[in-house]
Amino acid sequence: MLKALFTRAALLLPFITTSVVAEPLVWQAQDAHRQFIILGSIHAGDDGFYPLPTAFTSHWESADALVVEANILKPSSAQLNPTVATTAEMLTDIEKQSLAATAKLAGLSSSPLLSSPPWLAAISLQMKMAEQAGLSPDRGIDITLLKRAQASQLPILELESIEKQLRLMEQLDDHGKNLLMATVNEWDEMAGQLSCLIDAWQAGDQAQLDTLFDESQYDDDTDSALIVDRNHDWADKLIGDPTYQRGKFLIVVGAMHLLGEEGLHELLRQKGFSIKQLSQSKQASCS
């Protein structure tokens, strides 16, 4: 998965409007009493990601809240479970050799990866891949919008807590070994997918994003835990939680959560919401 942080002047950058031919996908989900404006994000970015689509930012002043996966600006006491198996304990000798080779490509020492849980080693490698592609967590969509909301005193709501995200990762089968070994074994392919993902995201190319989503899937259990189950939980929360019964909400979630038949907006459609694309799209240059 290529799935997954400023001065006040920098915070204004995503809200400077320009004329664009194409832009990241923005969806509107609406029923009689509420309106959700949904943007798919990439959690690490660069200056080329901005400005964000006016189809999203034009609703900022009239929004009741910004809704994110988890509010990473909020202090958290979440800690790793010290009893969870380490990567060194989960991998065979041959797999450790493969990990060491990939770590070298990433410019990382394999020692801290081996002492981490497999899922955390996978995330560390993927974040390093993003860094090698010129991306930084500090320019990610989520953190930029969170800081803007904080500066403008727009209420921030979260679909889940940091603690819940940590527990989710710790409960992956084999502590996320499949996630790690997919990253190790498909390093070069994933680097190409990341480049294409950025291109397709910026173009708002739904078809290409769907293709990348299909190509980047892991085993069914891992995909369900990381994407599908969370989409269902979020849809249920948006539909049933008293907080979301009336008003306009700006929602930003990882782009992978808006793909496939069980994407967040598709689940809302199935529950009776009218769904409309607000952004402009074009075909991405990658394939």
From TrEMBL:
<dbReference type="InterPro" id="IPR002816">
    <property type="entry name" value="TraB/PrgY/GumN_fam"/>
</dbReference>
<protein>
    <submittedName>
        <fullName>TraB/GumN family protein</fullName>
    </submittedName>
</protein>
<dbReference type="Pfam" id="PF01963">
    <property type="entry name" value="TraB_PrgY_gumN"/>
</dbReference>
<dbReference type="InterPro" id="IPR047111">
    <property type="entry name" value="YbaP-like"/>
</dbReference>
<keyword id="KW-0732">Signal</keyword>
<feature type="signal peptide">
    <location>
        <begin position="1"/>
        <end position="22"/>
    </location>
</feature>
